[in-house]
Design goal:
850 residues; alpha+beta; Immunoglobulin-like; five-stranded mixed β-sheet; 41% helix; binds tryptophan; binds zinc ion
């Protein structure tokens, strides 16, 4: 049974565990409905504390036997764990429990996916495997013995003895329980090898179900690149003889960094040109790198408690972004990351779920694997690097790795390393970790006697539980352009520390045009009175690729807002500027493809809400359609030219160059489809020999309302491939018209290929509806009711995924009274559901409370 009133956990309540563990030995006797887990754990009193309470977490376990130093004991058992009287000296705890992996639909703990056993222990899943102090500051070396009839039996660390029906593994590196992993199944390996720079040979394997061997090569190459990159850039070497990656179909997130045995959502590993898009390949490369980089930032140095989650996640996201920037285009990666940061993190920060990068309390930790912890957490690392400079950044990281290797560390430890390296006081910087909300940076300027002054004012709006926000240190990268477009002041980082602050530039011949927050040097919202002429000027001349893109985006956005507010026709200045920019063959095609992207429906709704207006989702959809039509008209000659010129003739590779060309050609195809009624898209669909081309053609046809036949053909071709079928679900829903989206989603949820047990499939349908704002927010309320129905159904099976999807409702206060009432009714219905999970109770409750 679930708690009646879920408990809130507070950062300030931290206290160390009363015992340390010298060794853990686990034996698993696998059986789908009755797996036995036999544990041998060597405890000794922790000299750092006098607290001698002995509490072991454990949930849903059937205790068969328990012994201390070989003597049977009878612990006191609750739904959360057990307590027991123990000696005030080192002792051995032994227990045998029984669990039911085949009945585990939550995908947390030991569960079964497509006939194989696998685990997910972060954050608190190990307690569903055996009784243990399931907290990240308790670290121990693990020996594991697996008994079962599967062909492949894997766990963390290095392989030990094997024989018919068993395998042993030894992990010499002390680790917290959340990094434990076990996999057993009839898997096949795509093998490889890597030699570290000190000459250690590491066996690499990508383990998949038979039939998927042909989709592993890219993941393996990505892994090798990541291993080499971490040596070159951070001086970090791998530390075991073997590195295993396993692909599983049923997984709540992207992937998991278990020591030496990463477990991946198959969508984040498997790729072939026929079945995966360029975007899929890039995502695989970055997730493989992310999980690999955790070996140092997360595993060797872990978190003291879950409040410190950003310590490993923010830093590791930052590292994987650096990796992608180095492997591909730094400018394109930065722009793409800021698009997601604004779409997900700014949205979160502006609503009922806003929380600091290091939260001070939580009810369910699984609800805090958020855009704020991950993406804003990564921005904080980037700001630190900007503030101290590259050299000191890497010196600080070296100190971090030597000082804290083997530790369960805190944000304070992290900042201290930078303070000790640079002599800087980072107490003001720390506010970025403790204070929620996105700062507004208002900029005004003065020009007098050759002296140019920029005045900044910072203000952060209140967030739930935090009314006052003192000023933070903000690194503002600025450059100045002269009237003819030359750069007269190169990028300079202004360090703002006050609520209001001015910076002066002398000796300029003419009033410059400022390029502010270059490279998006801080996660803030810049507000400045400017006009479209200046935006067009920056779009043409800025040397900073991010701000150049930003100028185009701002231009598109101001035109769209004018349409929404005053019914203005599509902005000619934008149409001229974007046509000139996209036709400029000196520019990177990938950059041009990004520049063709328009502000999303959600971004526009957010902008209107910020301005105190009430967004109308249908009107936003129409404004965007109107702009797309006008743009097609303006690009009547350019679109076919671009489409033809950027066809890739070489054999398929997912590299940056080819994917950039395809991205631009496909953007041109979308424009062309508005002009030719879908003829070019139909041709491309028929002739495509890779998924990037096939899918973009299908998307164009669906959007044009002429995609039914192609969708059927796509289904017939790919019905046997789960990952491709997910795309089929998603594409139809995201391209549906506002008044049809909910009904189509509903129809697809009764399709024989729909199942709510697979999170990818669930997201492919219901997540796609959420990604179609005009459809989801249709005034009928049908979208709201459908999502709520499915969340209520999913919650008892998989509360983690249900709660995550419930965040779709977080923007509800933006909308008109009618929509607010409809959403409130659905949230109340969810909250009134008997036995609702802690995950959903927290999320739906926090959303409803505003
Ligand atoms: N640590 C994982 C990562 O970021 C995240 C993760 C994977 C996760 N599976 C999870 C978090 C399940 C919570 C629950 O790489
Ligand atoms: Zn991570």
């Amino acid at each position: 049974m679930r708690d009646a009133a879920p408990q809130t956990i507070h950062l300030t309540d931290y206290s160390p565990f009363g015992y340390r563990i010298d060794k853990v030995a686990l034996t698993f006797r696998l059986a789908p409905h009755a797996t036995r887990v036999i544990s041998h754990i060597e405890f000794r009193p922790n000299p750092d504390t006098a607290d001698r309470r002995f509490f072991l977490h454990g949930e849903g376990l059937r205790l068969i036997s328990a012994m201390i130093d070989g003597q049977p004991v009878t612990p006191e058992i609750t739904p959360e764990g057990l307590t027991c009287t123990v000696p005030d000296a080192p002792f051995v705890w032994q227990a045998e429990v029984e669990i039911d992996p085949a009945a585990n639909t939550a995908l947390e703990g030991l569960y079964m996916s497509s006939g194989m056993y696998c685990t997910q222990c972060e954050a608190e899943g190990f307690r569903k495997i055996t009784y243990y102090p399931d907290r990240p500051d308790v670290m121990a070396p693990f020996d594991v013995r697996i008994e079962g009839d599967a062909k492949v039996l894997l766990s963390n660390g290095n392989p030990g003895a094997t024989g018919p029906g068993f395998a042993e593994w030894h992990d010499p590196w002390p680790k917290p329980a959340y990094l434990f992993a076990l996999v057993a199944g009839d898997l096949v390996a795509h093998p490889g090898e890597f030699t570290t720079r000190s000459g250690r040979k590491v066996a690499l394997n990508i383990w998949v179900r038979p039939g998927d061997e042909g989709k592993c090569a890219f993941a393996l190459e990505s892994l090798k690149k990541a291993m080499a990159w971490d040596e070159q850039v951070y001086g970090r070497e791998y530390d075991l003889d073997i590195f295993n990656i396993v692909a599983v179909d049923d997984f709540n997130m992207g992937a998991m960094e278990n020591k030496g045995l990463n477990i991946f959502n198959s969508a984040a590993v498997l790729a072939s040109p026929e079945t995966a898009t360029d975007a899929n390949f890039e995502r695989i490369e970055s997730i493989i790198a992310h999980e690999y980089f955790h070996n140092w930032t997360g595993n060797r140095i872990t978190c003291r408690d879950w409040f410190q989650l950003c310590l490993k996640e923010g830093l590791t996201v930052f590292r994987d972004a650096q990796f992608t920037a180095d492997m591909r285009s730094a400018a394109v990666k930065r722009i793409a990351d800021v698009i997601t940061l604004r779409a997900r993190q700014f949205r979160e920060d502006a609503g009922p779920l806003a929380h600091p990068v290091r939260p001070a309390s939580f009810v369910e930790i699984n609800n805090f694997y958020t855009a704020t912890v991950y993406e804003k957490g990564a921005e904080l690392i980037g700001m630190l690097k900007t503030l101290v400079g590259d050299e000191d950044y890497y010196r600080a990281l070296d100190l971090y790795f030597t000082r804290h290797d083997g530790d369960a560390a805190t944000v304070e430890d992290w900042l201290k390393v930078f303070e000790d390296t640079t002599g800087r006081d980072l107490s003001q910087f720390k506010r970025w970790y403790t204070d929620a909300g996105t700062p507004r940076l208002t900029v005004t300027e003065d020009w007098k006697d050759g002296r140019y002054t920029l005045h900044f004012e910072q203000k952060t709006p209140p967030t739930p539980g935090q009314d006052e926000k003192p000023p933070r240190v903000i690194p503002i990268a600025v450059g100045l352009l002269g009237p003819n477009g030359d750069e007269v002041v190169e990028t300079t980082v202004l360090e703002m520390t006050e609520a209001r602050q001015s910076f002066t530039f002398d000796g300029l011949g003419a009033r410059p045009v400022p390029s502010i927050l270059r490279g998006f040097s801080a996660p803030v919202i810049v507000e400045r009175e400017t006009d479209d002429a200046e935006r067009a000027f920056l779009l043409a001349h800025d040397t900073d690729p991010f701000n150049r893109w930003e100028a185009g985006r701002a231009l598109a956005r101001s035109g769209l807002l004018a349409t929404l507010r005053k019914g203005a026709a599509p902005d000619q200045r934008y149409l001229d500027a974007i046509t000139r920019l996209t036709g400029d063959e000196t520019l990177d095609p990938a950059f041009r493809a990004l520049a063709l992207g328009l502000p999303g429906e959600d971004e526009l709704a957010h902008a209107l809400h910020e301005a105190g207006e009430t967004p109308d989702p249908q009107a936003i959809w129409e404004a965007l359609e109107g702009l797309r039509d006008a743009r097609a008209e303006a690009m009547k000659t350019l679109a076919p030219t671009l489409f033809a010129r950027h066809q890739v003739t070489a054999s398929y590779s997912p590299d940056a160059e080819q994917s950039g060309s395809r991205a631009l050609a496909n953007a041109a195809l979308a424009i062309l489809t508005r002009l030719d009624g879908g003829a070019a898209a139909a041709d491309q669909f028929a002739s495509a020999d890779n998924m990037t081309l096939q899918l973009s053609a299908l998307s164009c046809l669906l959007r044009a309302g002429t995609g039914d036949e192609a969708a059927q053909a796509f289904y017939d071709q790919w019905r046997g491939d789960r990952l491709v079928l997910d795309k089929w679900f998603t594409l139809q829903i995201v391209n549906a018209r506002p008044d049809e989206a909910a009904a189509l989603t509903e129809a697809l949820t009764v399709h024989p290929d729909f199942t709510m047990k697979n999170p990818n499939r669930f997201r492919a349908a219901l997540g796609a509806l959420a990604a179609n704002p005009a459809g989801f927010h249709h005034a009928s309320g049908k979208g709201y009711a459908l999502l709520a129905d499915w969340l209520i159904r999913l919650d008892p099976l998989n509360p983690q995924t249900a709660a995550r999807m419930c965040t779709t409702f977080e923007t509800w206060r933006r909308y008109d009274k009618g929509r607010q009432n409809l959403i409130a009714a659905q949230l109340d219905r969810i909250l009134a559901t008997p036995g609702l999970s802690r995950d959903m109770t927290e999320i739906a409750g926090r959303i409803r409370a505003v």
